[in-house]
Design a protein that fits this description.
9 helices; 0% strand; Serine Threonine Protein Phosphatase 5, Tetratricopeptide repeat
Length: 221
């Protein structure tokens, strides 16, 4: 570019450049601002969603613990459904359905309803290993209570390879033993109980030792 010697030439050069590039520059700036403010709006929306889900969960817990309120069970069911429908991707929805399943299983004696709630919770907790193990344990127990023994074993197997140092390994092994024993497989139950004893982080359990004793296994085994 030739040297610009006068102020008029410099001003004209700036005008010419702006005509050629001004629109694309404004578009680029606009896009950048949209991304920044859009991201901030999304973050604010997510924060609001989490806060609303948390408030719903607190309502559910208050109802669950209020034995004097005859409508508490209905409130728990309603709020758990709200969490499923409106905040399905929130961990609070999973926790809410864990509470609902406990009510369905114990207070309502409705194992099938509890299984449905826990299966939903398991699908939503897959990325969170620890939470998924909690849900899977409760689901297997609900299936056991409903005499769906093969389903319960499949749920336990779905946990995959759980390291022996993980407390859930012993829990799952003992539950497997309970299921196999009810199915009449004493040998399988014995092996499962022995595995639970080996995997336990809490030392030997008195209840587990009684189960082994009933199968002819002493503490020295």
């Amino acid at each position: 570019m030739a040297e610009l010697n006068t102020d008029e030439e410099q001003v004209q050069a700036i005008k010419d450049w702006w005509k050629r590039n001004g629109s694309s520059l404004l578009i680029g700036i606009g896009a950048a601002l949209a991304i920044v403010f859009g991201w901030q709006a999304w973050q604010n929306y997510q924060d609001q969603e989490r806060a609303e889900a948390a408030n719903q969960f607190v309502t559910l817990l208050n109802a669950f613990g209020n034995e004097a309120d005859e409508t508490a069970g209905e409130t728990v069911a309603f709020v758990a459904k709200t969490l499923r429908d409106d905040y399905a991707d929130s961990a609070y929805a999973v926790y809410g359905n864990l509470v609902l399943a406990r009510q369905q299983l114990i207070a309502d004696s409705n194992a099938e309803a509890a299984i449905d709630s826990l299966q939903w919770a398991l699908e939503k907790s897959g990325e969170h290993k620890a939470l998924a193990l909690v849900v899977r344990n409760r689901l297997a127990r609900a299936q056991f209570s409903a005499e769906r023994y093969d389903d319960a074993l499949a749920t336990i197997d779905g946990a995959g390879s759980v390291e022996s140092a993980d407390a859930f390994a012993a829990i799952f092994s003992e539950l497997r033993g309970d299921i196999l024993l009810v199915q009449g497989d004493e040998s399988g139950a014995r092996d499962a109980y022995l595995a639970a004893r080996e995997q336990s982080q809490q030392g030997r359990s008195g209840i587990l030792e009684l189960k082994l004793s009933d199968l002819g296994v002493g503490e020295e085994a």
